[in-house]
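Good morning C.,

I know you're traveling, so I'll keep this short. The sequence:
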Amino acid sequence: MKKDGDFRMNTTGSYRVARVYLGKQYLTFTFEELGYLAYIIYMIHNQMTFYIAAMTDMIAYIDTAHSSTTYVEPHSNANKSINYYQLFEELKSVF
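The tokens, ready to paste straight into the viewer:
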């Protein structure tokens, strides 16, 4: 059993399940589900790293596009992985 404050996890080899507790509430996972969660957590970590790296370019673009009524091209050195046209359309639906 692994214990860290209110968070703890119990596993059983015979039933091949793990029960993850937070305080008195818990979720039960099969070992296969835990393997899948471990895999997607790695992917989510990589996505978050990308978003953090692109955040400065997105903020700069939002500041520029906020007051415009027509599509604004991003700076030439802006992150190329961001779909700026879609971002602009989303901004116009909010502002």
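Safe travels,
E.
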